Amino acid sequence: MSAVIDHHHDDHAHGPAKGLMRWVLTTNHKDIGTMYLWFSFAMFLLGGCMAMVIRAELFQPGLQLVEPEFFNQMTTMHGLIMVFGAVMPAFVGLANWMIPMMIGAPDMALPRMNNFSFWLLPAAFGLLISTLFMAGGGPNFGWTFYAPLSTTYAPPSVTFFIFAIHIAGISSIMGAINIIATILNLRAPGMTLMKMPLFVWTWLITAFLLIAVMPVLAGVVTMMLMDIHFGTSFFNAAGGGDPVMFQHIFWFFGHPEVYIMILPAFGAVSAIIPAFSRKPLFGYTSMVYATAAIAFLSFVVWAHHMFTVGIPLTGELFFMYATMLIAVPTGVKVFNWVTTMFRGSLSFEAPMLFSVAFVILFTIGGFSGLMLAIAPADFQYHDTYFVVAHFHYVLVPGAIFGIFASAYYWLPKWTGHMYDEVLAKTHFWMSFIGMNLAFFPMHFVGLAGMPRRIPDYHMMFANFNMISSVGAFMFGVTQLLFLFIVIKCIRGGKKAAAKPWDGADGLEWTVPSPAPYHTFSTPPEVK
Amino acid sequence: MLRPAYAWLAGLSLSALSVSASADWGMNMTRGVTEVSHSIFNLHMTIFWICVVIGIIVFGVMFWSMLMHRKSQGAEPAQFHEHVSIEVLWTVIPLLILIGMAIPATKTLIEIYDTEDSDIDVLITGYQWRWQYSYLGEDVTFMSNLTTSRDEIYNRVDKGEHYLLEVDEPLVLPIGKKVRFLITAADVIHAWWVPALAVKKDAIPGFINEAWTRIDEPGTYRGQCAELCGRDHGFMPIVVVAKTEEDYAAWLAEKKEAAALEAELRAKEWTLDELMERGQRVYNTACAACHQPNGEGLPPLFPSLKGTDMVLNDIPGHIEVVVKGSPGTAMAAFGNQLSEVDIAAVITYERNAWGNNTGDVVTPLDILEFKQGQ
User: Fold this and answer.
1) Strands ordered across the beta sheet of B179-185
2) Do A242 and B206 touch (CB under 8 A)?
3) Would strands B237-243 and B219-225 be described as parallel, antiparallel, or unpaired?
4) Cis peptide before B364 (omega within 30 of 0)
5) Are B97 and B50 contacting, i.e. CB atoms less than 8 angstroms apart?
6) Shortest CB distance from A308 goes to which of B58, B153, B202?
7) Do residues A438 and B144 make contact, with C-beta atoms less than 8 angstroms apart?
């Protein structure tokens, strides 16, 4: 009997299928992870081009390149594409590639659904981007799409925008279900929850956040759809509705959403900093609890995005206190990372450079977040460039640098080659300088009184805006270098060992580089 | 690493830039001219310096590790990975700092929310894309429009000193009086923000928000709409002129006189030329942003007025859509935004401009009659 089975195995090598259909039909977590990562990078470049249009228009006072109508479409689409198209799929891609290898599983728990949840994304974003070419233009109401600007006053293409959000949301929910099912069911024997790498932990918590809030987002866009086409008045005061309710529902989704975009990066950095400090992560247990605390708090702070809508004093106070509390677990994480580096044996390859920059710059973003939490002060900061500076400081060096750090850290495992370290360091320094030039001055113009989402401004904001634009162009162009580095690494380079980083730890480094098409068909033993 | 000379150069040029940019408001929050704005400024600076100190400590340890514990210098890694008391310490200390911060913040917030006992009440209504101010009990209401010319915006002429921050009719307030603002909107959400007063409140259709201020010194204070409200969100500034009590009273009397004059104008016999002249002015401030100066609009969002059926043939329909707006679209109801004279003028203008040439004359009394028939 066993001879027959062996024979069967010999006939089917179980390598990837040939041609295009490999990618269309694949249920392999590595292939799907690759597709997610390429898709997200394409969206990153597209959203980046839109940011370039914005920064070019804001290079000088006056309207030079685009009309306000198109400018608003650019700010809206830049936000939507970066949040839903670039950052979220990148982390799902990393999860697909790494979680099965980190927990010793052969694949994701639900491989066919995995394929479907990826292929929904090109459909969703194809639809979203097509709105730019429709009569009346694409969404122009900001990525937060506040009603009634996004309902009664929206361009006709808003219906397509709603449908695109629905599809992207379904994709996210299915991705999250898959990740939870994988982590809870497919861990290798001996891999208890408290032995899981932090990347797995942060993704597990992120996946629960996704399942909790994506349906809320779907709900709010459905209510918009009803208001626009079926005569309801959810958000129309004249019909007994409430425009503020839109904001409550949106931010109940929106605030956990910002943690969805940062928690997986916390996990990746918690793997990379110990590896290049050659020292175990400090405070693993407190890291897990801090992540859970942040996730819990993210559900009870949403109205800090709405301090100026006129919520009652007691509500204002509650949301201020709850928001300030987030600083505690976030601080614990930062202290843990710094203490991990303390008295280590540090080296600064590209993944470490991005991770160190992550800790410093994310902390700066955290500081401005703490300032924004002070409700009375928020009356001055709210909806200014100070807020723009804040969330770009947590998203660019937070989420995006976290993704770059992960990519460089695991590229040898994915491709079997070492990337070009000199080019990668160039990529880091150009990104680091460009990013700070672009976003630091935004603190100043925001404090000085420049509202966000305006295509033109008074001359007193001119110098800082010009610096911002120069920095943004620098950051943007540098990302083409990243594309070059990745392609170069795929095509060849120094052979990577199974464990190319001497300080790294984890099951993914026990398999050869590049990782075979199927890994851990037999579960490893974790002691 | 930059060599010191370059670092100095970079630092100098950066600070030179910041000096020229800070000529007006600087690179920091304004201290403002009210007691509340001073408290907010102090909160802002306190939390800022707390962050700076924490930053110096945390980044200090980090940079020290990065410089002293390098593998290239033969550093041997320690193996510790937990320490309960230090972990408790760095949970409790931040908590105490936060409580210390929350106390003054709460006090200021309570003050901001105390809108009782006002001396003057002003109703502020946000429209796409202008503000309307109504002095309650005084029978004074006016719109406040951006006066910066298109030529300045499109870089055809030099920009004026108050580029994008200037209006035809500012909100005038007396100093030393508690002024309560009742803030609402007629179409989408706007936000009324004047940094020097530290007042920012959303203007929400169907709801009335409250805020208040007591201005200490006479002066002109400028702000902008702070909530994305569509195409011309960046072009609906706010200007507040604070005057002494006597000057304010004089201004108010003048305003009331002007209102009486307006009523006289309504009854006057208007010729086509007079209406056309006034209509063009009204059109350019109230209608041109959407329907464009050439009347061709930006279809399908903002329809063309040139040669279209309603403009050529349907006078009652034309009056109705201007006065009452068009529900479900971006067309606002101008019945409360513009006077009868202005509405009559602008309708007459639209029916005779851009080759429409209907020869129709719509008088202020026609508008009044339509309104009363409602």
Assistant:
1) B140-144, B130-135, B120-127, B179-185, B209-213
2) yes
3) antiparallel
4) no
5) yes
6) B202
7) no
Could you confirm whether A330 is annotated as catalytic?
Answer: yes
Residue A16 corresponds to which tokens in the numbers above? Answer: 């990837």
Distance from CA of B62 to the nearest CA of A (A): 6
Q: What is the C-alpha to C-alpha distance for residues A499 and A68, in angstroms, rounded to an integer?
A: 52
What are the residue ranges of helices labelled H in A374-420? 375-381, 385-394, 401-415
**How many other CB atoms are found less than 10 A from the CB of residue B175?**
18
Complex-level ipTM: 0.91
Task: Based on the residue annotation, tell me whether A443 is a catalytic residue of this protein.
Answer: no
Window 334-363 of B: residues touching A by CB (8 A cutoff) are: none
| A333 counts as catalytic | yes
Taking CB atoms and an 8 Å limit, are A454 and B234 in contact across chains?
yes
Residue of chain B whose Cα is closest to the Cα of A146? B189
The residue type of A164 is: A
CA distance readout (Å), A474 to A42, A54, A517: 18, 14, 38
Residues of B in contact with A458 (CB under 8 A): 162-165
Partner residue facing B300 (CB), from A136, A360, A382: A136
d(CA B2, CA B8): 9
User: Which chain A residues have a beta carbon less than 8 Å from that of B65?
Assistant: 338, 341-344, 346
- Work out whether the CA dihedral B313, B314, B315, B321 comes out positive or negative: negative
Q: Are A58 and A374 in contact (CB under 8 A)?
A: no
Residue A518, phi then psi, degrees to nearest 5:
-120, 125
> Pick from A464, A469, A473: which is nearest to A442 by CA?
A464
Interface of B with A in 92-151 (CB under 8 A): 94-95, 98, 101-102, 105-106, 108-110, 112-113, 128
Q: Which residue of B has its CA nearest to A75?
A: B228
- Strand segments, DSSP code E, in B149-280 are 171-174, 179-185, 190-194, 199-203, 209-213, 219-225, 237-243
Closest residue in B to A371 (Cα–Cα): B47
What does the pLDDT profile of chain B (374 residues) look like in tens digits? 334 444 444 444 444 444 444 444 468 999 999 999 999 999 999 999 999 999 999 999 999 999 999 999 988 888 888 889 999 999 999 999 999 999 999 999 999 999 999 999 999 999 999 999 999 988 888 999 999 998 999 999 999 999 999 999 999 999 999 999 999 999 999 999 999 999 999 999 999 999 999 999 999 999 999 999 999 999 999 999 999 999 999 999 999 888 888 778 877 888 888 899 999 999 988 888 889 989 998 887 788 998 888 888 888 889 989 988 887 677 888 887 888 889 999 999 999 999 888 888 898 888 888 887 76
Chain A: closest CA distance from residue B360 (Å): 31
Max CA pair span of chain B: 96
Interface mutation target, options A74, A149, A229, A245, chain B, most CBs of B under 10 Å: A149
A371: contact with B, CB 8 A cutoff: yes
Provide the token pair at A77. Answer: 């689409």
Q: Do B79 and A280 touch (CB under 8 A)?
A: yes
Residue B94: which of A325, A304, A342 has the closest Cα? A325
Is A78 catalytic? The answer is yes
The single residue of A150, A151, A172, A368 carrying the catalytic annotation is A172
> What DSSP string describes A410-432?
HHHHHHSB---HHHHHHHHHHHH
Contact A263, A206 (CB under 8 A): yes
- In chain A, residues with a C-beta closer than 8 Å to the C-beta of B95 are 328
Would you tell me the crossing angle of helices A284-297 and A327-341 to the nearest 10 degrees? 150
Helices (H), chain B: 4-21, 35-68, 84-112, 150-153, 245-267, 272-286, 288-291, 309-313, 315-324, 340-352, 364-372
